[in-house]
């Protein structure tokens, strides 16, 4: 990781996490997943707290999703109708109908899964508002998703990074050289097995 990233004050990292993730859930093409991953790696270095990063990321998801849902509920139908009329090949009416059916049946589950997909992050909240997913169901689903995604991603990166750092620090140069030799020696047999199957 770049040395300058380690020198960024923690509050700047927290603000970036909140606003970039919130913006992505508000239908803006922002790199929310990349920001969360970077913040998790900064937590491994001790620059930020992994728990605070997780909480701020979850808050960003909830704020961005609430705004996206509200925008969709207020003007989403009109925007959707204009998009269908303007881009009928890209967004045919039958696709809109299929999406409406999907949200009628699985709307809350689509919202729960949304955090784990870069594309769904941008469109799930406005679509849920546009297609009339009940507010309480939406709020419960996005809360579960936000907490699972933010804490799972950040703490997963943090603990894996900590374990990898300890493992690498525990290796001697001789042990590392032996590991490289064993890995290189196993490459031909791996290719042979692959060719046989």
Structural features, described:
The protein is an all-alpha fold and 197 residues long. It has one domain. It is 84% helix and 0% strand. The protein contains eight helices and no strands. The longest helix has 37 residues, at 50-86. The radius of gyration is 22 Å and the shape is globular. It starts with a helix and ends with a helix. The mean pLDDT is 82.
Q: How many domains make up the 3D coordinates?
A: 1
Q: Please provide the count of β strands.
A: 0
Fraction of residues in helix:
over 70%
Gap between N and C termini, in Å?
39 Å
| N-to-C order of helices and strands | HHHHHHHH
Question: What value does the average pLDDT take?
Answer: 82
Largest sheet: none
Uncertain stretches: none
Number of helices: 8
Shape: globular
Radius of gyration: 22 Å
Class of secondary structure makeup: mainly alpha
Quick structural overview:
The protein is an all-alpha fold. It has helices at residues 3-6, 10-25, 32-45, 50-86, 93-114, 118-130, 135-170, 173-196. The protein has one domain (3-170).
